[in-house]
Amino acid sequence: MKTKILKAAEVIKKSRNLIALTGAGISVESGIPDFRSAGGLWDKYDPAVYATIEAFNKMPGKVWEMIFDMIDLTAKADPNPGHRAMAELEAMGLLKSIITQNIDNLHQKGGSKNVIEYHGNSSRLVCLRCGSDFGIEEYRIFEREIPNCKNCQRILKPSVIFFGEMIPQKALFESQFLADSADAVLVVGTSAIVYPAAGIPETAKENGAVIIEVNIEETVLSGGVTDIFIQGSSGIILPDLLEAVKSL
Ligand code: ZN
Fold it and tell me: Which residue from 91, 191, 197, 214 could staple onto 219, CB 3.0 to 4.6 Å apart?
């Protein structure tokens, strides 16, 4: 384990274009279970019923029952040492960008500046009619009051990508560009089997990047595109990795 961390630290230290790809695993230690896991959000709410854009358009009041729980879960969570270590790697000029599949805003809360979100952010609300957007703090979300647009009165939707919605073009273009130019990729807390996230380590690897993976369990990446697999929780491994980088 120690030698793997040291090896990864050397790659990070030498890199000129390190990017990261993160998923649900990094936020588990912040108290947010993977939506798809037992006890996760989809255990309580069938995403086919509650998390499609069609459902939101047809019965926003019902879908807001799920959204209140989702925002409760994410907005009250704090970043953990894994998020903070990544923010520090960015502040040191080593980590150029984080591409995340998470909606919990924890990278930003942990101090990261350059974050590309595939699936949006649950701390913002958007109006599907007039395009206005608002912070959740402008409404009484925690009192479970369904928010209406201050400009046109339509029920707002969290700025989170629902099933049936497109991943934002800007996020796709930016991450494709990053994957093409990266010389190292830090994959954290994701099995990266769902595209487009899955394409990031693959593309980068084809362009010669070194792939470092930090996950609790081995994934399809571990035996293939991953060069250095470090098994363990990101809240422990990432601070260790940061210390190792600093010691070089
Ligand atoms: Zn509006």
Answer: 191
Q: Which residues pair with 20 in a beta bridge?
A: 98, 186
Strand locations in the chain (E): 18-22, 95-100, 115-117, 120-126, 133-135, 157-160, 184-188, 210-215, 228-231
What the block records as the tokens of 179 is 């994957």
Q: How far apart are CA 157 and CA 60, in angstroms?
A: 8
Centre of ligand 1 to C-alpha 132, Å, is 6
Burial label, 90 (beta-carbon count in 10 A; 0-12, 13-18, 19+): buried
How many CB atoms neighbour CB 248 within 10 A?
Answer: 10
- Residue 17's CB is within 10 A of a number of other CB atoms, namely 17
pLDDT tens-digit readout, 183-201: 999 999 998 888 888 899 9
**For residue 237, what are its two tokens?**
């491994």
- pTM for this entry: 0.95
Distance (Å, whole) CA 48 – CA 176? 29
Q: Are 106 and 76 in contact (CB under 8 A)?
A: no
> Rounded to the nearest whole angstrom, what is the distance from the C-alpha of residue 124 to the centroid of ligand 1?
14
* Average pLDDT, integer, range 192-220: 93
The predicted pLDDT at position 192 comes to 86
**Among 83, 84, 107, 119, which one carries the catalytic annotation?**
119
Which of 19, 21, 18, 5 has the alpha carbon at shortest distance from 193? 21
pLDDT in tens, 131-171: 999 999 999 999 999 999 999 999 999 999 999 999 999 99
